Amino acid sequence: MLKVKFLFAFFILVNATQLLAKELQIKDVDAIKADVTTVDGIINTLYDSISGPKGQKRQWERTKTLGIPSVQFVMAVTTKNGSISTKTLTFSDYVNWVNDYFLKNGFVEKELGRKVTKYGNIAHVLSSYESRHEVGGKVIARGVNSIQLFFDGKRWWIVSILWDSEREGNPIPQALLSLTH
Question: Is the predicted pLDDT of residue 12 greater than 60, yes or no?
Fold first, then answer.
């Protein structure tokens, strides 16, 4: 019995080590001023930094400079049985979840429309998008990002991104299909 427990523990350790070895480590770099001094700049950089053709490494270091250290990526999820919930990811979790897929398949996300509401040092951006594997390719997804921003007096920071996908019964509202600021 002790041998079985040892083998099981060894199996868990080896698998955990392999999972950790695959995790990308994203370096901390300074933000590019033009990326973060305006709401337009930070939103445009967000889309630009995650997009690219098959085989192209993403600009994860640049993406990381956009968010506060505890930035959250939250997906609204509808399960097969119709229940609705969320899945919350840290920046590192998000990168490690999507990186291999983006490299293998390509991923280009384009903003379709935007509505910005500002108050004091905060802004809320509703940004509709469409995703493709390549520029001009078939649309693989559409939806709306709800992006919460904070201004520290010098620059904008992404606090969180919550998104929901377009699907039957959940079309993108017409008001979010044009760029309004």
Answer: no
**Residue 26 or residue 137, greater confidence:** 137
> Which region among 51-55, 75-79, 118-122 has the lowest average model confidence (pLDDT)?
75-79
Q: Categorise residue 172: left if φ over 0, alpha if ψ from -120 to 50, beta otherwise.
A: beta
With beta carbons less than 8 A apart as the criterion, state whether 11 and 5 touch: no
Distance CA 52, CA 126 (A): 23
| Alpha-carbon dihedral angle through residues 110, 170, 67, 155, given to the nearest 10 degrees | 70
User: What whole-number distance in Å separates Cα of residue 169 and Cα of residue 181?
Assistant: 27
Provide CB contacts within 8 A for 83, sequence distance 6+: none
Q: Average pLDDT for residues 81-100, to the nearest whole number?
A: 94
State the fold for domain 31-176: Nuclear Transport Factor 2; Chain: A, (3.10.450)
Domain ranges of the chain: 31-176
Whether the CB-CB separation of 5 and 80 falls below 8 Å is answered with: no
Q: Mean pLDDT over residues 52-74, rounded?
A: 97
Strand partners for 19: none
Global confidence as pTM = 0.84
